[in-house]
Amino acid sequence: MDKNNLELAIQLRxxxxxHPELSYEEIWTREYLKEFIRKHTSLKIVDKGRWFxxxxxxxNDNPGIAFRAEFDALPIDDICxxxxxxxxxxKGHKCxxxxxxxxxxxxxxxLEKYGADRNIYLLFQHAExxxxxAIECAPxxxxxxIEEIYAFHNTSGYPKHxxxxxxxxxxCASKGMTITMEGKSAHAGMPETGINPSFAIASIIxxxxxxIRPENSxxxxxxxxxxxxxxxxxxxxxxxxxxxxxxxxxxxxDEMNKLQHDLEEISLKEAEKWGLKxxxxxxxxxxxxxxxxxxxxxxxxxxxxxxxxxINMEEPRRTSEDFGHLLKLTKGAMFRxxxxxxxxxxxxxxxxxxxxxxEEAVEIFKELIKS
Length: 371
Known about the structure:
Strand content: 25-35%
Structural class: alpha/beta
Oligomer: single chain
CATH superfamily of the largest domain: Zn peptidases
């Protein structure tokens, strides 16, 4: 990577880090990224409102290739002692999306300097943390006849500079599920005159271990209790309403959906048994991220060319990625580049993206363009 381009990309990363914005609030971030590309390249920018993409036009009919980076931050304080620390209390780039976007902008700089022989689309995406951004960007694929799309995520747990790949499910599907039970409050001295949802919710909780027994599924299925909220803090009142909040997760989306169906059926039966009204709400829904085999092979070949070590992951990441929406529409893959072992993990207040990963990501992208 050109030295000046790398320095510009690192500087951009630090500027993004100073100004973190949460999902659907990324106004400054989006405009700053667009201005950076306008200032330093001649790539065409297509503004889609909440998101945008930049296009390198090769002037031929070669198949189009796309690369994606996210630019939203998290509601986590930045406690790192850095000259470019977050200037916004309670918000920080604690998942590395500042580094992902800086890397993609770095690729734009390299395309400006060295060119390429195919049309290239650089997708800068909003709202990844909520699982909603990628599906809003999905029209990019069909509208531009894109035949493959790639993205990377920084990660820990492997030696630094190691690239982790996996064919098939790379990231699990997940969904936030809220089960609401409405009954009738009563005096605590006369609970029989009310309808208390506590027993129904307790029954649902008790059956969860049976629903996620490993031998009952072909892949990992998980149900995590996030919150139990029943009644009011008043010792004279028996509870009349309650909410059970869960995160359901699966290596395979169909098995996660079956878990959802089973939880709904059990909840409705318990509601009927106790005379309660039952309803369901869902949020932060992520698809499974399924890497295409031939695309993973291209990533591996790129790493071999660059002498970067590769690890084939045996199990998918339990964390979720909305990039899976795009991989449902075209070939492609997500890969992970490690910033080292025994370091603060993602979503930790002490975490900071490692600038050394920018050049590695850009060089892998460049090799994928050639493939």
